[in-house]
Write a structure and sequence with these properties.
By secondary structure, this protein is an alpha/beta fold. It folds into three domains: 232 residues, P-loop containing nucleotide triphosphate hydrolases (Rossmann fold); 99 residues, no CATH class; 208 residues, no CATH class. The protein is 32% helix and 23% strand. A seven-stranded mixed sheet has the order 9-8-17-18-3-19-20, with helices on both faces. The protein has a six-stranded antiparallel sheet with strand order 2-1-4-5-6-7, with helices on one face. Strands 22-21-23-26-25-24 form a six-stranded mixed sheet. Strand 1 and strand 2 form a beta hairpin. Helix 4 runs antiparallel to helix 8. The longest helix is centred in the middle third of the chain and has 22 residues. The N and C termini lie far apart (60 Å). The relative contact order is 0.10.
Length: 615
Amino acid sequence: MRLKSVWISEYKNLRDFTLTFDGDSFLDIFVGKNGTGKSNFFEALVEIFNFVFASTKRRSRIGFDFDLFYEIDGDDVRVRREGGQLQVNGANRSKIADALTPDNVIIYYSGHSDKITSTVDQYARAYARRNRKWTGEEAREFISIGAEYKEMLLSILLMQPDDCAARRYICQKLGIEVTSETVTLRLSPPRFKHSDVEVGDVASFLWGAKGQSLVFVERLLNCVRGEFTRDSIYDRGQDRYTIRINLELFREEFADASSSDLFRQFDNLKTLGMFEGLSIPIGLGDGRPILVGDFSDGQFQSIYIFAITEFFKDRNCITLLDEPDSFLHPEWQFSFLKQVEDIAATEAAQTNHVLLSSHSASTIVEANEPQIRLFEIADGNVSAVQRDKAAVVQSLSAGLITFSEREARLNIYHNLKNTNGPVLMVEGVTDEIIFETAWRKLYGAEVNRPFEILSAFSCTTLGRLMRSNEFYQDNQGRTIFALYDWDEAYNEWNMNHSQVVQNDVSRCLAKKRNGVDGYNLMLPVSEEHSCYGQVVNAATGEHYKSKSSFPMELLFRDAPGVGAHFEIDPTRPGDCQRFKGDKATFAKEIVPALPPAAFEPARPVFDFILHTIGQ
């Protein structure tokens, strides 16, 4: 299954929009800043496939014209709708043959799209109407994965054999293990008209369920260890069945069933309104129990992603992952694409075409160049153009990253794996360039720097790392310094569980985290600096904390020939100075041209680091 091309007449900001899919990779990546049309393209695809699925049963409607060209099981299929007329492979039709449509379109949307939600809900209601007898014979084509699938997805993954790649990745990344051989399934009455459960009445078991849903639940009963009756697993007061599934018996009973088959069976119970919950006891590596609700959004996003690729890799599918990496831990963003490919690439290359949108530069760094398309807006029109990876990274980074990937060092996690010894982490890529230049200017290019300088990409990421016990555990034996600007980043500097070890603004405020070699530093600002008053109240001698205004560039405000790069900040009193212009140009072109004396304001940072590491 593979998309070959899509044409959209007009949908939101997509006008006369054409996208062609070249190559045979199972994964295509779409990138671009927010507002360029990535999500609109996914919404339009959802609308188109909703029309296609509906057209297998009746004449259907859609609010725009389109041309959809794809390959399925070796056959080319072109579905075109223009001027109210449906064409299939060039012939006018009122319906589409089932054999010509995908098995599934899977949607994962990390943000919020009313259009996607309403379209999928509309499909689900139509599906439910067709299954009022709740036999579960018809599998859903549209499947939208969201928060309501959390427990189900994690449990089904953990019920897979130990050698399942997705199961292995999840256990490794979350640091969990299964702590019990019993999985608990809870079933509630279906949303349709149904029978009351009567004790001793076999026909009323499972509220009178029939068809595939009944067959599946009866097979699950084969996985219950020990004596029980159908009446004993039913709670009349709560009108609920509780089935305690033994994991060993389950794997024997469903040895021939694929993970996608199992997901569809549980999902049918959910669609019919019977599925209330599926839980498996889990614990951390040290044995402490943990609940599903204890995981962060980012951690569960990885569960969604891995579950989708595992459960549908053997189906003819289109999978739409809209910014699935948006909440992922920075380190996970770097490894995200590799892990998806490890799970799905072999089998999915022929059956599952995954379309992924992202605006994470960290994710894109690990992508293969031919896979990347950049959404751009020019003259009010949206286009998706092929771009080399360096150009894509530059666009996603809002111009802050204009150097090679090696120079940019997009993520502190990624780079720590490739370095040794002490490290100074700074807020951004331009800060990294500036301090690398400062060392060369102050000490000479021939003098070895006994510590690394790496960018953490933002002050919030930097602060989160310095507060993370896991971060220090992963980097034992290393002394880590973090440098912050004088602005709201002060709040990140002022971490708990730490002690002030240097309380001098001119030498750089310094805090040490208790029990580890982690130091938070504030930019040094000498009393002689013209912008000293933007940090310290002259009347009281106290600094303004997070209300200060002294970013990295202001270190050079008093250097000769840089006045054009600064201006009075009209939003602050007292003729405060602020930087203006392009940070990357300033860091790469202006700063290196300054004389060594201009870098003296940065020397206290190096003095503190060298003293601390004994150099």
